[in-house]
Amino acid sequence: MHPRRWAALGVIAISQLMVVLDATIVNIALPSARVDLGITEANQQWVITAYTLAFGGLLLLGGRIADYWGRKRTFMVGAIGFAAASAIGGLATTGPLLFGARALQGAFGALLAPASLALLTVLFTEARERAKAFAVYGAIAGGGSAVGLLLGGVLTEYASWRWCLLVNIPIALLALALAIPLVPESKAHGDTSYDVPGAVVVTLGLTSLVYGFTEAAKPAEGWDSPKTLAFIAAGIVLLIVFVLIERASKNPLLPLRIVLDRNRGGAYLTSMLVGAGLFGAFLFLTLFLQNVLGYTPLKAGFASLPVTVGVLISATVASNLLPRIGPKIPMMIGPVLAAIGMISLRFIDVDTAFWTHLMPAQVLLGLGLGFTFVPLSSLALVGVPEHDAGAASAALNATQQIGGSLGTALLNTIATSAIAAYVAANLVAGQDPGPVALKAQVDGYADAFTWAAGLILLAGIITAIFVKVDKADLPTGEAAVHVG
């Protein structure tokens, strides 16, 4: 085992937190950025979607680059590029420049994230140590989004929305400076040729699918719009073509043996569904706190902290349980707890209390996420040979990001439809529209929370059906891979 593995874990944790929180840190800053740069309401979604599209679409290629080119080298290039893209976004003077910078952030994040998880796989080879390392990673995966909301609130309130991007520069440079002496290099051996056709097709397919779902969320388009249907259909066709390419390729971008293993396949489906519910929940919780309860950006950020507290508690418990009872039981408990928390949020109103309603619901949500993400991170890499470590970890990251993008679009469409229906049914001519509009938002957000709970519960059912791994199947020092 590598002597500096725990120090290297700290470096990996810093970089992973930066990548995860960047998916939500701009949520609270969005209203300020929109006004400052003259971005229309129809286009403001691209500040978020440009990041998740590039990140989710390029993750598989990023995983293979990490495997073949060297995980430390890929990690360092990812950190430098992420810092540069953040600088461009933070100094942006137009909306399109900001959108482009966010896409560039996503592209370099797609190098950084799979390199990080693959490094964990080769650094920690003893079962108990690996469980603790994945507990840190799982806690960041589950709680990073909430940290992003808090940090976004603080920076927007006391500095500027621009610092929600510029803050990445010192974080990335710190991770880079520490990685040089602390993180060892490792890479795959054997056939290291790139599956370029597969990379191009899967990136286009995922992008088309997510774009189609994003279009469906627009009131002017909707689910039955020819544009929406065309992009979704094209995405599905391209993903089918990708599977055919992978079957025929000698050295595929995503070896189908990784996905077709029932335990990993179950883990990836769970990751996608939990990601869909989680990203949507954070978006609508933020909107509810600011648009309905009238919280300031800072107060809204702090009001999101209970999720992080719940994640930290359950991640610690899960890491101790994992070597004793295996991943299946925590992964079944997690979605149930998270769904209960989400169902609690379904009963919000225009004057919902924080301490007696929102806080307990968020703690439950956080507890559920910690119990889900810690074993999920470990399970997705059980039995993966070192040659495929980057591809397997990239697939895990990609499922969460794609799930988040699709889930946000789906839940946004559900919420928008519910809001419009409520207004149409309850607004009387000559009446002050303010109170009705407020209640309509609550109705829409409540519908979104209900569907999010359903998605997360479905993840628990999939775990029960597919996951058969017990503690005896978790890697030991003899079976695990080593740093080369």
TrEMBL record:
Spans traversing the lipid bilayer: 46-63, 75-99, 105-125, 134-154, 160-182, 194-213, 228-245, 266-289, 301-322, 329-348, 360-384, 405-428, 448-467
InterPro entries: EmrB-like, MFS, MFS_dom, MFS_trans_sf, Sugar_transporter_CS
Gene Ontology molecular function: transmembrane transporter activity
Superkingdom of origin organism: Bacteria
Main localisation: membrane
Membrane topology: Multi-pass membrane protein
Subcellular location: Cell membrane
Xref: Gene3D superfamilies: MFS general substrate transporter like domains, Multidrug resistance protein D
GO cellular-component term (any): plasma membrane
Keywords per UniProt: Cell membrane, Membrane, Transmembrane, Transmembrane helix, Transport
Residues annotated as domain Major facilitator superfamily (MFS) profile: 8-471
NCBIfam families in alphabetical order: efflux_EmrB
Protein name: Drug resistance transporter, EmrB/QacA subfamily protein
